[in-house]
Amino acid sequence: MSGNKSRFQAISQITDRQKQPPKTPNRLEELWATDVFTLSKMQACLPKDVFKSIKNTVQTGGKLDVSVAGIVAVAMKDWAISKGALYYAHVFYPMTNITAEKHDGFVSVQGDGSVITEFTSKVLVQGEPDGSSFPNGGIRNTSAARGYTAWDVTSPAYVMETDNGVTLCIPTVFISWTGEALDKKTPLLRSNAAMNGAATRLLKLLGHTDIATVNSSCGPEQEYFLVDSHFAHSRPDLLLTGRTLFGRPSAKGQQFDDHYFGAIPERVQVFMQDVEEKMYRLGIPAKTRHNEVAPGQFEIAPVFEAANVASDHQQMTMTILKNMAKKHGFMCLLHEKPFAGINGSGKHVNWSVGNATQGNLLDPGDTPHANLQFLLFCGAVIRGVHKYGPLLRAVVATASNDHRLGANEAPPAIISVYLGSQLEDVFEQIKKGDVKDSTHAGMMSLGVATLPEFQKDPGDRNRTSPFAFTGNRFEFRAVGSNQSVSGPLVAMNTILTDSLTWVADKLEAELAKGSNLSDAAFTVLKEVMEQHSAVIFGGNGYSPEWHKMAVEERGLLNLPTTADALPVLKEPYIEELFERTGVLTPKELESRFEVYAEQYIQTIEMEAKLVISLAKTRIYPAAFRYLSELSGSIANLQAIGIEMEKESAEKAASLTKLMMDAVSKLSAALDKHEFGTIEEHMQYAAKTLRPMMDKVREYADALEGEVADDLWPLPKYQEMLFVK
């Protein structure tokens, strides 16, 4: 039989690949933040009064003194040029979910034709990109296109070095000429400021007088897949969508549980080391690396940082992973579900709040039942998640994350809170009105004298919970691997702001009645539990019983798709929440709904078009050739008296016909353009187009198991996942 050679050429090129020599890692202290214009570097080159002003803004959130920007600009330029930079860029994060930047040179031509380097305060503080060329939900258009970028001094500038040069990168916000936020960073900064105000007010009620700025902090765990680029370039679906639209599961997948925490393949570890070196140079505190559950899947996680910086660093991490993968002959897949039949990828967002004087405000200590500060902050989170759970679902709603949520590999689409047995017991005691103690798990003894005894954690780890307390923080597990962490952080900060304000109002009212602080606090906490304990769940979030109970008995919403979840952003109580806290105006919130809804529809329609194209140009020809050659072989054998079973040919012919019919139906469905609302269009994409695409795939994947291996035109799962 004749066949497609590209797959076998790819395998040959991979197996013949020259092994990279072992690399001697640089010392961490020699690498750390060498490419970042840190406060210590500023202190060394700025006048004392200028440095003091900048430091005050960075560390306390004080107002930026624009008059010092010119001095900072010169120092920043000189430092960047010493690192080899010839260009600078205002870096911002529009609603495309990826980084945007325009490079401008430091060069300035003088009247006599000579050149000097120049970087002024105006250029540092403000830029002017075209606001209409980015997703904006109708806020900007081609006749009213002006937009601005503005320097975010709280996130440090850095130089980004590539094979093509060095660029000074300045983190900025992106707003319209009329003042609306067009980016991911502006709402995050607003939400953190609002949360700081509400948290400070509550801390004062608790008797604190020395209160430093309260910040949210974040430590996102990034999962990803690596596929050899020879395979990836032979898969148009991976190149254009980041996932396989066709592909029969490999006989071996993840059923043996042998990949998770297994030995990291040598080639992958060299890649990881280069990623980490780049991250360290940029001041990104990479801490953990390991194999994940699925074959070909890995994870990298940093140490906690202030949420704004962590969000910037997370965007940089995704860029570094993709770029470094190319250098090592890989494609890095950040899609939530690149392969069917095995786990997809998420991004667990570990979130907490705290400051320099009171510490981590979500640390329960050894006696959580007596820790009023912790209980009030934790109670505020419980109230917020119950009251605004649909918002948390909406901010993780994307076309790609729909494949993962609720699929027995990721949290369900029903938002609940897991506290662990100790805290669940404490809050149950509060609900009953009699708080006595905190249960302790005791020591773990392994029965071998040479092995250490150690303190057990007060609660187990529930991997099925979308929002779980994990010792001194909450872990939001529903976030997609390809998402910016900004949206989830904005939502968590905002609902906490609302709840802390409610708690403080209630506490003030109880204190005004003459209650002491302890009695007042437990009265407020009892009300929280009476009204919001329905959101607390410690069981199996995957079970059908929980899904039924959550909706029918506890009144929680099950929003299985983005088409179901995104319209939550248009609910009046969500609009009021963001307006009341000053995080997003109604116009800004509406624009986000419009942008994300359009992105959802466009993603599914683009994938549907590619399904049709691949079926017609890749899979049909392979099936036809196989049927032709198989029928010819059967006829030739019969001519010499050898009878051959015809079941294979009949099955392949039937599957081909079924697939062709399914493609025709999908093609006709794509031609529908009449929709009353964008919500109707989303539902059509989710409930009509997606199932039709799945039906085409069902027949194509079945055909893959029938067609001769040398004829199949696309790299197979077993090759992409196991040939490294």
Present the secondary structure layout.
Elements: H1 6-15, H2 28-31, H3 39-45, H4 48-60, H5 69-82, E1 85-91, E2 103-105, E3 107-109, E4 115-117, H6 121-125, E5 126-127, E6 147-151, E7 158-162, E8 165-176, H7 185-205, E9 215-228, H8 229-232, H9 236-241, H10 266-281, E10 286-291, E11 297-302, E12 305-306, H11 307-327, E13 330-333, E14 347-355, E15 359-360, H12 372-394, E16 417-418, H13 421-432, E17 443-444, E18 454-455, E19 467-469, E20 474-476, H14 486-512, H15 517-532, H16 544-552, H17 562-565, H18 572-581, H19 586-639, H20 647-670, H21 678-704, H22 717-722
Plain-language structure description:
- With 724 residues, this protein is α+β, with helices and mostly antiparallel strands.
- Among the domains are: 32-183, Glutamine synthetase, N-terminal domain (Ubiquitin-like (UB roll)), CATH 3.10.20; 359-443 and 475-554, no CATH class.
- Helices cover 46% and strands 13% of the residues.
- It has 22 helices and 20 strands.
- The strands form 4 sheets. Strands 9, 10, 11, 12, 13, 14, 15, 16, 19 and 20 form a 10-stranded mixed β-sheet that branches. Strands 1, 2, 5, 6, 7 and 8 form a 6-stranded mixed β-sheet that branches.
- Strand 14 (347-355) and strand 15 form a beta hairpin.
- Helix 12 packs parallel to helix 15 and helix 14 (486-512) crosses helix 15.
- The longest helix has 54 residues, at 586-639.
- The chain is globular and about 100 Å long.
